Design the sequence.
């Protein structure tokens, strides 16, 4: 079967591809509010699609995404004040990453890429990788390479300049804003309805966190910046950067 999706293959096909050295991608997402104009699965759709595009070019396999993310925070994802968001504790998320990596290693996978689509997953992903290395045994990892990638880090500065001629607000405030909206318009326009977007941002957060905190600094829409200017064309620019960046990393690190 000609597919990059691990779960669509039979076990002999997976066994053969891993034995041949296929890089294995683990998309890390979330089920989280993304404004009134987009579906809750943005952080699953984006890393899965980017991984699939890259995997098709490097002979890789894409695992089913982890569809629940580490606890959404007001300053990066809107926080707990919106219906729909489903959170995992950091230790739970880290253990999922650990267990998947350990089982991949048991089956012979030695080239593993975690591709993250949810800002709050960063720390628990790092912990999960470290726990996996501890569990496998650091003395048994000479032939193992694990890459941890946040897809937004691969967007080129010149692309950001084209999209934000008046200045890039930063990835934290881009939650459900131009970058994610444009990429979703390119990939899944059926899950985007810009007519429902409310231009009530950008958010202006104090430079500290308070617990338990109300969400009074988060715009009521859940969009931390603005959606104005989002287009499918811009989404394709962004996706092209992410795909090319991953392919370049794979060739450099797994050569």
Sequence:
């Amino acid at each position: 079967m000609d597919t990059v999706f691990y779960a669509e293959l039979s076990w002999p096909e997976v066994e053969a591809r891993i034995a041949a050295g296929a890089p294995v991608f683990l998309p890390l997402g979330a089920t989280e509010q993304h404004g009134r104009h987009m579906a809750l699965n943005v952080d699953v759709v984006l890393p899965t699609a980017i991984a699939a595009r890259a995997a098709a070019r490097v002979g890789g396999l894409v695992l089913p995404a982890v569809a629940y993310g580490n606890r959404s925070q007001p300053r990066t994802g809107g926080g707990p004040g919106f219906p729909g968001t489903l959170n995992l504790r950091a230790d739970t998320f880290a253990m999922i990453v650990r267990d998947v990596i350990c089982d991949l290693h048991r089956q012979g996978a030695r080239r593993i890429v975690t591709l993250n689509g949810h800002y709050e997953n960063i720390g628990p992903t790092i912990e999960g990788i470290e726990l996996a290395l501890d569990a496998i045994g650091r003395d048994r990892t000479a032939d193992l390479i694990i890459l941890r990638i946040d897809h937004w880090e691969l967007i080129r500065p010149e692309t950001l300049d084209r999209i934000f001629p008046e200045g890039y607000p930063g990835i934290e405030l881009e939650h459900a804003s131009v970058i994610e909206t444009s990429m979703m318009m390119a990939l899944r326009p059926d899950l985007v309805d810009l007519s429902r977007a409310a231009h009530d941002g950008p958010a202006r957060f104090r430079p500290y966190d308070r617990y338990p905190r109300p969400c009074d600094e988060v715009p009521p829409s859940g969009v931390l910046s603005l959606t104005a200017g989002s287009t499918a064309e811009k989404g394709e620019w962004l996706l092209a950067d992410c795909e090319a960046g991953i392919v370049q990393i794979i060739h450099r690190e797994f050569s």
